[in-house]
Amino acid sequence: MRRKITSVLVGLGVLGGTLVAATGSAQSHGYADSATSRQQLCATGAVRNCGQIQWEPESVEGLKGFPSAGPADGRICAGGNGRFSELDDPRGGAWPTTQLSSGQSHTFSWRIKVRHATSDFRYYITKDGYNPAKPLTRADLEPQPFLTVPFGGVRPAAVVTHNGTLPQKSGRHLILGVWTIADTANAFYACSDVRF
Description:
Elements (H helix, E strand, L loop, with lengths): L1 H23 L5 E5 L3 H7 L16 E3 L34 E2 L5 E8 L5 E8 L21 E4 L8 E7 L6 E10 L4 E10 L1
Parallel strand pairs: 3-9
Antiparallel strand pairs: 1-4, 2-9, 4-7, 5-6, 5-8, 8-9
């Protein structure tokens, strides 16, 4: 009898461990909410026909190492994740924009659902002449981030904010936020359509 109980408990432990391992990768993680990201627009219903991202705005995770590695051109806003390809669709340049003031201070913020050890947060912006009616490529972005916030492996809070000075730009642009995880091969991506 004792042997049966032990076998059942071991079996339950293995099952529980399997469930934790299986659900660990499917948990949500984090997304940018200032400037408003495409995934947030989908999650709040401000933009329709978004597919699965409307229920998982925190899950835009792809390989890290951007811009030398990471998601392929044209698949950057979805982090290379085909489940969220609606984020890469430029919608004819009609994504709603966040109004920003060129050269002014701005507080960027992320909502973090699963707090990963973090290398850094980086913010890239599109070059002058960017065409918002086409999927985002590396060639569309300035080569260097305009803001980098090092974290040195620390886990961020549930809401993390970064103050930075916006570049001198005018018209419609896109800001790409990249949250690089320290202890995995991945990063989280957030595209925010903005107007200066």
